[in-house]
Amino acid sequence: xxxxxxxxxxxxxxxxxxxxxxxxxxxxxxxxxxxxxxxxxxxxxxxxxxxxxxxxxxxxxxxxxxxxxxxxxxxxxxxxxxxxxxxxxxxxxxxxxxxxxxxxxxxxxxxxxxxxxxxxxxxxxxxxxxxxxxxxxxxxxxxxxxxxxxxxxxxxxxxxxxxxxxxxxxxxxxxxxxxxxxxxxxxxxxxxxxxxxxxxxxxxxxxxxxxxxxxxxxxxxxxxxxxxxxxxxxxxxxxxxxxxxxxx
Length: 248
Description:
Layout: H1 3-11, H2 16-22, H3 27-33, H4 36-46, H5 61-68, E1 86-94, E2 97-105, H6 106-111, H7 122-129, E3 135-146, E4 151-159, E5 165-173, E6 176-178, E7 183-189, E8 203-212, E9 218-227, H8 235-243
Antiparallel strand pairs: 1-2, 1-4, 3-9, 4-5, 6-7, 7-8, 8-9
Helix pairs in contact: 4-5
């Protein structure tokens, strides 16, 4: 078996990323790895129906794979916003009574709850003490809420650099209580700028972090968490998402 035949036998076993890496080794490897048979096989594994067409595509299967394959990791450019430029406005009501109202600077929200109070469940404590980017703030003084009451929340975000404001959550009701994670949750679909019409529905979530009060149907709220778990988890992703809101 010749050297070229050995390479062809090995290349047929590789996935797209490894096969593309082989193309960078030398001219001989590149010439063999560019054989469209390998890329047709890879396309057939990923998109079987495209190889069932009676006529071949107008471009090579290598070009098809290169065009449509999406890398799992994306590198974002530095965001145009900074948490130093932002402040968040939180208002929470039980029916007609305002129980929490705060203006929170971006860095304070990003700093989070550094020391969860005694009595917090382990799941919630591990979450708050984890290394992931979080936006949390303590509720001081703590608030006791009866779950029979209708509880709603609004969150606005303001830009200090332009004095503009955008809506994150507008009067959403806390209608889901997760007693395993000790969270009462509400959400709102974000309102994006008309300049970005093709962004899909993305939700902003807000959670009341609580402990059991000891009384039936009453929760002891010690913190609030805001997140965009549908689309943004890192600090940079959150800033990019906020940047495309409908700022007024």
